[in-house]
Fold:
Amino acid sequence: MSPTTRWLSAAVAAVFCALLAVNSGVILAGPKAAEKSGNLELFRLYGFCMEVSDAKRRSLPDQANMLRELGFDGAGYPLWLDEKLDQNLKILDEAKLPVYLLWTSINLKPGAQPFDPRVFDAIKKLKGRPVTISVLLQGLPPADPRGMDAAVKLLRDLGNAAAEAGLRISIYHHTGDWAESFPFAVKLVRQVDHPRVGLNFNLCHWLMIEGDKDYRPMLQANAAKIFAVTLNGAQIGAKTWTNGLIQPLDTGNFDNRQLLATLREIGYTGPVGLMCFGIPGDAREHLQRSMQVWKRWQASSNRDQ
Structure:
């Protein structure tokens, strides 16, 4: 074979491989490509569930000040009701720490009260705030068809209340709950068909239920309805939360940079929650570690722009 023939053969092979990679969805460019497209300046990072396992058992004012001092943009908490909502919002306002996500639950068990009716008053009080109300759907086995009609009606009612307040309702897919899988939550959102009702992408629960699948096609196909995102360090293939699927950002082998790049590519610009459920020890210590990683990612993405 002549040198010219060998060169042409190599060129044809290179083009073929490139086309194959594009058509199969394989990313050959490696982590650096994900870093370059994932500008972290677009994302606000907030602490979520960081108070649950904190060995220091900090008060809400101490939690808010700690998050602000460490550089977090906000926080996520359970949805408080009545005077507690007013009191806690005042605490967060004084700390200049926005609340980005408040979660509540719906009980779909036949005959049960689905949720505290004070939720509607709480939604009204949150008008004007950058809050997403995240809803866990419980009371029935995962995907039990008996829950569909009730869930659709309740979510539409909440969606109407959220629309009046300028907020959004997001289905929180959670292992063991009726809506435990992301694909099922997508199906539910389509059934609800309400402009103010969307869904979360919760990394740890995706990995527990759908960990052997590529999340990117699901995010790309449902970009307009992803209203909230939570991530954390995680060990792929683990089946425990602590030291497994929920870790600080400096541990685990899941590629969060690729996830952030995907969010950037699909146009997600909302806040990102750092899931901290079950992480033992002093919350300040592991939050600081995660923030150091986040800032390093920010610096790297800025250099690559």
Summary: The chain is about 45% helix and 15% strand. The longest strand covers residues 99-107.
